[in-house]
Amino acid sequence: MKTAPLGPSPRTLGDVLRHSARRFAERPALRAGPLLLTYAGLDRCTDALAARIRAAGVRPGERVGLCVARGPLALVASAALMRAGCSYVPLDAAHPSQRLRHIVGNAGLKAVVRDESGRAAPEIAELTALHVDGDDLTPGPVTGPLAGSGTGDDAGPDPHSAAYVMYTSGSTGVPKGVEVTHANVLAMLADALPLFGFTDHEVWPLQHAHGFDVSVWEMWAAVAVGATLVAVPPDAQQNPESLAELLLRHSATRLHIVPSVFQHLTEVLEEEAARLPLRNVTFCGEALNYRAIRTWSRSQPGPQPAWCNVYGITETTVYNTFKRLTAEEVVRADPATPIGTAYDHSPAVVLDADLRPLPPGRTGEILIGGRQVARGYVGMPGLTAERFVTLPGRPGRWYRTGDLGHTDGAGQLHYVGRRDDQVKIRGFRIELGEIDHALRAVPWIGDAAAVVQHTARGEPVLAACVVPGHTAEGEAGAGGRPAGGLLDRLRKELAAALPEHMLPGRVVCLDRLPLNANGKTDRRALAEDLSRRS
């Protein structure tokens, strides 16, 4: 029996949760170790925490930091903040001080919801803090401003209120805050949910951090269809053996996963000869890894899951296209990743440099329009105007993705790459220019550029190509001869400015960086040079 996509005319994400709490009241909504929250319990926890947030003096319309570990508190706290009429701004206590300070200032944060992990971030110490812990995952009576309101949303948001602000990598070295509304997310859910063929009693892992926009789909698609989310504990986040064990133990039916992570999972299942009868695997965040799909098929005989690929970005609310792969396409392994067709209310076009339409087969920039286009960048009107545009003869606002692609004769989209220096590593969107900026700030580096290499298994890895400054002569080899311990030293110095996923996995010292005809650093030549050295 298929579930209805959403409740009757929801205005906010809080309405979606309220509808599911009524429809699936005693169905498991969230499992985390010994914790089990039903949908009714999840709704009551959300109401109770929303009441605490209001009682703490936080007002509707404010942006509030959310600094908690990934897992159950991220779901409950983000839902509570939105139900209280606020938008949540993810903060990661493990991120560098410089990045956290920028987000706090740029978003205008005055308050933060944090768990014990958030106490380790001094950059948020001056904010009004509301502490959350395991007690907030225990349903109880609602007290305070929301008590007895009936819906809990009476003074809450409307569809065009901001739901969250997600910070992405910035080419100038400054992260960009993308403001997304309830209406944007509801539009995504309304268009996307019917495409996946969800049935009753779906189970999938809650594994992505709330600072990664895939978490929005992971959480709210589950809430909308009454699925059970299984929180992935910290020791399983980077451990494919533990992740495989969790999926097997809870009989997961679906995965929403980055291809490079799926590769490791398939290898573990093959080595352990374990059978995981998934119904659907949806890939996101990176180019498809066909070899991993074939490994799965070899090690998992019998009915295969539906292999799906989705495409989208933070500025256009998570996902915008859908593609179900055929067995022939898996074998053929098209180098231009097929991303399918755009959603009904999220049109996609491929345009040339002058924003003119291109015929099938011609590569150009992908632009996304429609109801999922976000408000823009917080405090960056110039960049917002540059990237969020209007097109002659096409209604509404369109977002210039910077992604290159083409259509085929059937109107299907194929992703080719980036027109600038933005890449995706393990699902994280990264501006190489931001890494360049941090590298050049290191005292002993005269010049530097980051590039992406691929391992023998086809996984993307960041590499730093550095030209040592005069003060560093004798400390690091030149001409591509890395000095002993240089990578560890560089990673430690960069960690003050960059999060873990943006730290290079390799460093090579050069006499100079190659330049292209325009006098700019030639990243392609650098990548080719490093490939020859490997």
Automatic annotation (TrEMBL):
It holds the Pfam family AMP-binding_C. One of its GO terms (biological process) is amino acid activation for nonribosomal peptide biosynthetic process. Residues 17-377 form the AMP-dependent synthetase/ligase domain. Residues 434-520 form the AMP-binding enzyme C-terminal domain. One of its GO terms (molecular function) is phosphopantetheine binding. Gene3D superfamilies: 3.30.300.30, N-terminal domain of ligase-like. It comes from the Bacteria. Residues 135-157 are annotated as: Disordered. One of its GO terms (cellular component) is cytosol. InterPro entries: AA_adenyl_dom, AMP-bd_C, AMP-bd_C_sf, AMP-binding_CS, AMP-dep_synth/lig_dom, ANL_N_sf. This is Amino acid adenylation domain-containing protein.
